[in-house]
Structures are given as structure tokens and as C-alpha cells.
Amino acid sequence: MQTYVALLYSIILGEGRRVVMSDLKAMAEGLGLKNPRTLVATGNLVFEARAMDVAKLEQRLETAFEKTFGRHVVIIVRRAEDWLKLATGNPFPAESAETGDQVAVRVMRKPAPADGVAALQAYAADDEKVASVDGDIWVVFSRERPSSRLLAASNHKRMGIGTSRNWNTVRRLAEMVRGIGE
């Protein structure tokens, strides 16, 4: 069996409707996925399944989600070892230790284009940072500004399909994958 991390993009179903994590777990169990567990109510799922192609697993999850909840949602899946590599590859460890909620990674389905990531620098405020690691986009957001131009600039059209998680969530998912704190 292989452990996987699945990240759902924007799981708001409509006015006042959210996905309940117990329903998400039940959907995963219905697919035959083992030991599904969630982290916070924003669509983070860790589970075990037989080793398979990640793209096929993403498609299975997306199809089941649409059937179960009536809306298509992008789901990005990483194998446990790839998630741990992502977490240990954090290019901003000092900032993450200081303000984990201000450091985020946009986990990409396919690697973000290098020229697109380089272009993001133009949208960064003086106290913001951007880096690409293995095709994922890491950002340190400003504590001084309530909104960043980087969010809009790193959209699907420019960078490709991806979903963001802050460092606190990345770290906690890595702990779940390792079996710590369950």
C-alpha cells in the first residue's frame, strides 16, 4: 500500500454549503481507499491505496467528488514521499518558523513554467518573496498588507492548475504522512 496526500481546490459548493470532512472521508472509503483522514475543513485528505498512477487517482477522486457533491473540484494528489520532499524543500525555513501562516506553497499538477514564476517577482511587494522548487511555487506573503498582488498573478491561466496551502498545513500533512500525532 502507498500513502497519498490529496488537496482539494476550493471546496465551497455554493451559498452556505461546504463539504463536511466526514462526507469526504466516506467518499474516499467508497472508492476503496484505506484509512482516510482529513486535516482542517479545507479539503486535505491523507489515505492509503494500492500504488497507481497519480493522474488516474486524481481523475477517480474528481469524478467521485462530482458524483457525491454535485460540483467538479480540482484535486491534486502527491505520493507520501513526494509530499515529504515538498515539505523538506521549503526554501523559506526561517520565515516559516516565524510566521507559518504567511508562507505558502502553490502545489502544482504540472510544474509551473519557469518564465511565469520569474514574472511573479514583479508582483511581489518589498517584503514578499517568491521561489520555485521542483515546479511548485513558494511565497512569503507580507504581514503588512491584507492582500497581495501575488495571489491574483499566480492564477490557473498564468501558472497552470494548482492549489495553495500555508506552511502550517504543509507541515501538519507531513506529520500525518509520517504517522506523527494521529
Explain what the structure shows:
The chain is α+β, with helices and mostly antiparallel strands. The chain contains 8 helices and 10 strands. The protein has helices spanning 21-30, 54-69, 80-88, 93-98, 114-120, 149-153, 156-159, 167-178, and strands at residues 2-8, 12-14, 17-18, 34-38, 44-49, 75-79, 103-108, 129-133, 136-140, 162-166. The strands form 3 sheets. The chain has a 4-stranded antiparallel beta sheet with strand order 4-5-1-6, with helices on both faces. A 4-stranded antiparallel beta sheet has the order 8-9-7-10. Strands 2-3 form a two-stranded antiparallel ribbon. The chain is globular, with a radius of gyration of 16 Å. It starts with a strand and ends with a helix.
Write the SSE topology.
Blueprint (H helix, E strand, L loop, with lengths): L1 E7 L3 E3 L2 E2 L2 H10 L3 E5 L5 E6 L4 H16 L5 E5 H9 L4 H6 L4 E6 L5 H7 L8 E5 L2 E5 L8 H5 L2 H4 L2 E5 H12 L4
Antiparallel strand pairs: 1-5, 1-6, 2-3, 4-5, 7-9, 7-10, 8-9
Summarize the entry for a quick read:
38% of the residues lie in helices and 27% in strands. The protein is an alpha+beta fold.
Q: Largest beta sheet, briefly?
A: 4 strands, antiparallel
Taking Cα atoms only, what radius of gyration do you get, to the nearest Å?
16 Å
The topology string of helices and strands comes to: EEEHEEHEHHEHEEHHEH
Helical content class: 25-40%
Structural class: alpha+beta
In angstroms, what separates the terminal alpha carbons? 18 Å
Mean pLDDT across every amino acid position: 89
**Overall 3D geometry?**
globular
Point out poorly predicted stretches.
none
Could you give the order of strands across the largest sheet? 4-5-1-6
Strand content: 25-35%
